[in-house]
Amino acid sequence: MPLRIVRNDITTMRVDAIVNAANESLLGGGGVDGAIHRAAGPELLAECRGLGGCKTGRAKITKGYRLPAKYVIHAVGPVWQGGSHGERELLAGAYRASLELALEHGCQTVAFPLISAGAYGYPKDRALKTAVDVIGDFLLAHDMTVYLVIFDRAAFSIGEKLFADIAAYIDDRYVEQHTSPREEEYRRAAAFAAAPMAMPAGLDEALDRLDESFSQMLLRKIDEKGMTDAQCYKKANIDRKLFSKIRSDVHYRPSKPTAMAFAVALELPLAEARELLEKAGFAFSHASRFDIIVEYFIAHQNYDIFQINEALFAFDQSLLGG
């Protein structure tokens, strides 16, 4: 998956590069900065001394030394001063500069902390949105896997109104909160019994009813939307290799998060999203918080997959993508 939000210790991640939330001196500090310097060893500080510091909104790269990562990219984010002093532009610049350095040095996997969201006081929800916006835009043009590392879930926050709206949507629809298992089983059995069963007259008629597979429907929808394959799988937060498998195998059965991700990327209305999901052998279920959250965004015509993944992460659910 090109962008993943994970809970982890960034100093232990086996990626090509980790990003350090550094200060302008590049000589170490507290928080993530101090943890990275301690894990990398004194050689990192020695190399940093020769870099001559770094301006806010920019980044510089060093070796990783004793870290599992090959490189450390030192990004300098802004100190929060209320939001009217160009903080957003400087923070976005720090992310972009880091990604460009990673690309320049051939990195395929990069892990970021939430830059400026610690001692520098940048509001965590705004810091997260800036990170996701910049990284998401970059990944639409480049093939790279990026991890956004959240050390403590308690420190993570999406917007309060969005969180409350999604929570209310879940409460209104979550089957298990309103229906006992026996009642739900009875309801489904009654619905099945009431449904008309039209049996095909013969083999020819049965074969005529065979419709397109998930792969065929997906490729048809991409053409109908006037999208390229790359535009679609990048908007779906899907790896190119996985998309190639889907394209080359007419009978490919994706996972549910992958199928949902394509429905989001294609900006399908809810009825069409359900149809695409059915082709993969799945359905939206009101007994699943994961399903309800994705349904909430589609119903509200919000097809920003990275914002959807922020919400899924906040509610401790799996993320969309391959």
TrEMBL record:
PROSITE patterns noted in UniProt: MACRO (PS51154)
InterPro entries: Macro_dom, Macro_dom-like
CDD domains assigned: Macro_OAADPr_deacetylase
Top-rank lineage group of the source organism: Bacteria
Matches recorded under Pfam families: Macro (PF01661)
SMART domains: A1pp
Cleavable signal peptide: none
Listed transmembrane segments: none
Macro domain boundaries: 1-167
PANTHER family attached to this UniProt entry: GANGLIOSIDE INDUCED DIFFERENTIATION ASSOCIATED PROTEIN 2-RELATED, MACRO DOMAIN-CONTAINING PROTEIN
Name of this chain's protein: O-acetyl-ADP-ribose deacetylase
Organism of this sequence: Candidatus Allofournierella merdipullorum
